[in-house]
Design a protein that fits this description.
Elements (H helix, E strand, L loop, with lengths): L19 E5 L3 H10 L5 E5 L20 E4 L1 H10 L3 H7 L3 E5 L6 E2 L2 E2 L7 E7 H13 L4 E4 L2 E8 L6 E8 L2 E6 L1
Parallel strand pairs: 1-2, 2-8
Antiparallel strand pairs: 3-7, 4-7, 5-6, 9-10, 10-11
Helix pairs in contact: 1-4
């Protein structure tokens, strides 16, 4: 399998769902999940226990926030499919590129990997830069609500405990529910 054999994201292939989707966590995985769910659900709520800075600075609850992170080509292509123009925004936000195979070597299991024939640029930035740009894009979607300072407490299940009907969250000093 190569990047060339993986089809591009096609929102028309996402089956429409009823109700609301709730995503716990507004890191990269949660934000990208919310973006895809927004193509299927009429309402998507993302909760995170941290507050969100207005600038791309590390969040308290995110490990390795200030360290440089690499965005491999498959990740970049996926983010570009979901958020057209993302690569240019990333460079404008201060990310740098490096060519895999020419600019550095990868050492794995006792030896260097062969550079291969194709060259791919990798994008480097801090995690807050990546998250900030994706969070800005997701927050512009009409039916997505991103809530900061909401701590996940527990799942709310049906009487038989076979289906999740919602979640309980704590928003600062109040206790509230987010259900479908």
């Amino acid at each position: 399998m190569t990047l060339a054999t993986i089809p591009q994201y096609d929102r028309e292939q996402i089956p429409e769902q009823r109700g609301r989707a709730v995503v716990v966590g507004a890191g990269m995985a949660g934000l990208v999940t919310a973006r895809v769910l927004a193509d299927a659900f009429s309402e998507v709520t993302v909760i995170d226990r941290d507050s969100f800075p207005t600038e791309p600075i590390p969040r308290r609850g995110v490990p390795q926030g200030p360290q440089p992170h690499a965005l491999w080509e498959s990740g970049r292509a996926t983010l570009e499919d979901l958020f057209p123009g993302f690569s240019e925004e990333l460079l404008a936000a201060g990310a740098v590129t490096s060519e895999l195979g020419n600019d550095f070597k990868i050492h794995s299991q006792g030896d260097f990997l062969a550079p291969g024939t194709e060259r791919h640029s990798m994008y480097f930035a801090t995690r807050p830069v990546f998250e900030h740009l994706v969070r800005q894009r997701v927050s512009t979607l009409d039916h997505v609500d991103i809530r900061a300072q909401c701590q996940f407490i527990e799942y709310l299940v049906d009487d038989d405990a076979t289906s999740i009907e919602g979640i309980a969250i704590r928003n600062r000093a109040t206790h509230c529910r987010a259900s479908r």
